[in-house]
Amino acid sequence: MKSKLLAVGGTVAVAAAALTGCSAGESTSATECTNKIVNADATQVSVWAWYPAFEDVVDLFNESHDDVQICWTNAGQGNDEYTKFSTALEAGSGAPDVIMLESEVLSSFSIRDGLVDLTEFGANDVKGDYTEGAWKDVSSGDAVYAIPVDGGPMGMLYRQDILDQYGIAAPTTWDEFAAAAKTLKDAGAPGVLADFPTNGRAYNQALFAQAGSVPFAYDNANPTEIGIDVNDEGSKKVLSYWSDLVDQGLVATDDAFTADYNTKLVDGSYAIYVAAAWGPGYLSGLSDADSDAVWRAAPVPQWDAANPVQINWGGSTFAVTSQAKDKEAAAVVAKEVFGTEEAWKIGIEQAALFPLWKPILESDYFRDLEYPFFGGQQINKDVFLEAAAGYTGFTFSPFQNYAYDQLTEQLYAMTQGEKSSDQALDDLQSSLETYAGEQGFTLE
Amino acid sequence: MTTQTTAGPKPVATRRTGTTRAPGSRLERRRQRWGWLFVSPFLAVFALFLVFPLFYAFGMSLFTSTLATGTKFTGIGNYVKAFTDPLFMEGLLRVAAFAIVMIPAQLIVALLAALVLDSLTSWLSKLSRLLIFVPYAIPVVIGALMWSFLYSPKFGPSATLFTAVGLPTPDFLASGTIFGSLVNIVTWQWSGYYMVVIYAALRSIDPSIYEAARIDGANGLQTALRIKLPMISSSMVMVITFALIGTLQFFTEPVVLRNIAQGAIDAAYTPNMYAYSLAFSYSQFNYASAIAFSLGALVFAGSYLFLFLTRKQSGLK
């Protein structure tokens, strides 16, 4: 709560500065570290990241490296951090050497020359440590802009107790999912089957992708060309499906990531949470949970059970910024901070991260890990490993934040009954095309 | 010493009229040097943090920078774009609507409270005065966060209250109701402040005027409408000017509520929010500067026009 307040306060301060025209950027002193520096003589690399339990990982790195030391700062989560980074890029100073970025924003920053191509600094030496999908997410053409850290292969987390109470089997296809939603409502259950948040952003995009949507075609080698296709058949099919469920009142349309939503996730208001691999960690961190809740994980529902398509939601990376003083040392940090089993045990057990680093991803330890939150279910073996293996990568636009904001507006208009699902996607397509034109892109 | 100080103002007067050079002008110049010395710390900060950034931002607003093709000089291109940009125009119309609803709402609450408190003399009036003022003492962000919890269908008291009297629970965060919800927050927060300003003006009226009115047979209502109100018109003008500027720059409350109502409050809900989103979410710093400048010009023009129209009431004439 407190950090949220501070974040909002900071937002206001920055905005006030913006209005008076003061956009000189903020001065971040790289000398203030949250962690202890073990070897004071070594090169220091400043890092921004918001992983839970990251301090232990940093300590581990600093204790095991004599020549490089990490100086870590938590500069905010997601957009809060990106805003600071973006301002630092515009100002020309103030960015850290290494930054945690979700893979979806990599091209937004690489197009502004904010990130260093890591192929010069040995990125390809570690390529073999990651799956093909994970590597595709961090590269654009021949260039590699970040080292993958954690991923978000998707699964379905559900309340076994609620489904049992209404005699519903865990749905394996979207048809069964819709039928289950109807059964639940007809039985007069107090909650609904699931939520369809209009501000789901990457979540909604992932649902579209499952039906074959490839919204953007973009390659950094050709930075002025972009392909936009957000109103394809697949997306339209998925959205009209959800639009139907919304119209019949079978799913909720609550905004995601609000206090209300967090409570509803764990108090039984939604029986199913279609989630990424970091979802279990998110759930177990929420308060006001129903103490009798019985959670289980299953694969994400499919459109065609015979040809399952795996999808991904979120996932993060470490990139080296163009303002890094010692790029060589920064690249070492990006490659090695989550490059040991010890670091990953902290990441998995304390931060509930889903590793993309193969030595741990493919280990028996990770496969057989039992999760007390799921009554001892081996959720990696049952759900997420397969989901991760089936993921083939995704291309995001270099103005992803804008694209998501537009998507939210269109989906909201749709749930308000202002337009049909097809119309919403057609309008999204034309607004993105206009924007790309204004930004100097040529459409493919 | 005393002769020096009393001699001071005279040369100023003559110099202002621009006729003759007063004999004391040398002394005057020396005194002015001291004056500059004393204001210089303020001037330095003012120039560094307001004047320079203003010029810098204006300079930025004359360039156009796109993601794909880099930065080029476009002159007033950004301003032409701003005034034909439907998002900016919608935002302007929206804050104008807020001004029409919100300013009278705040003013009526503040004026009524001030008039009532002014005619009461018990300990209760002192306590009420403090209580009405308290919301203003709460930081705007905290106030908005607090209301966002009150509006929340899950945590807020509305569900309990409305079910108790058998009514359906309204959704305070839907696209149709968010306007009223925001008006409510602002009125709650600022009425107390305006009340104190108006109350202070009321206290400065000579009580013997009320006596005269009473002798002439005026009742309480007549005294309030015919005597008190006209005599505090300059304070009222000031209060409305503050409210006008604040409303046109509406920002904090919608930004805080956007965290829980992203559909109902879009990124360009008010012009100020639009400038913020452009700069910090979409990295269009140049266009954001142009939007900010356009808004600044409109706010300036709006307040100037208002002060000009009310110059009689405010005593500025």
From TrEMBL, chain A:
Alphabetized UniProt keyword annotations: Signal
Extent of the signal sequence: 1-17
PANTHER family found in the cross-reference section: ARABINOSE-BINDING PROTEIN-RELATED, BLR3389 PROTEIN
This protein's name: Sugar ABC transporter substrate-binding protein
Organism, as annotated: Agromyces allii
From TrEMBL, chain B:
Membrane topology listed for this record: Multi-pass membrane protein
Residue ranges of the region described as Disordered: 1-26
Gene3D superfamilies: MetI-like
Parts of the chain that traverse the membrane: 34-58, 95-118, 130-152, 172-202, 231-251, 287-309
Highest taxon listed in the record's lineage: Bacteria
Alphabetical UniProt keywords: Cell membrane, Membrane, Transmembrane, Transmembrane helix, Transport
Domain ABC transmembrane type-1: 92-306
Chief location bin: membrane
UniProt entry tagged with the keyword Transport: yes
Localization (cell): Cell membrane
Signal peptide residues on this chain, from the entry's feature table: none
Stored SUPFAM superfamilies: MetI-like (SSF161098)
PROSITE patterns attached to this UniProt entry: ABC_TM1
Entry similarity comment: Belongs to the binding-protein-dependent transport system permease family.
PANTHER family for the chain: ABC TRANSPORTER PERMEASE PROTEIN, DIACETYLCHITOBIOSE UPTAKE SYSTEM PERMEASE PROTEIN NGCF
Protein name: Sugar ABC transporter permease
Lineage: Bacteria, Bacillati, Actinomycetota, Actinomycetes, Micrococcales
